[in-house]
Amino acid sequence: MGKIVTHELVPGGKAVQVTNENKINYIHLMAHFRMHLQIKDQTASFIKGFRSIINPDWLTLFSTPE
Fold it and tell me: Which one-letter DSSP state was computed for residue 18?
């Protein structure tokens, strides 16, 4: 906490400027990073804790919308 960490979204990404031509690709890469990679450890910890109190087999009783 409290320190700035840089993550390259693609190899050599530090040297790539975001331009009008590549901005959509940048948005996709950033969204993927924030929604999947950045929260990977927190999500794994949540799932581990959730499974420690709820039997995973019970989840089959529910549909996705429920």
Answer: P
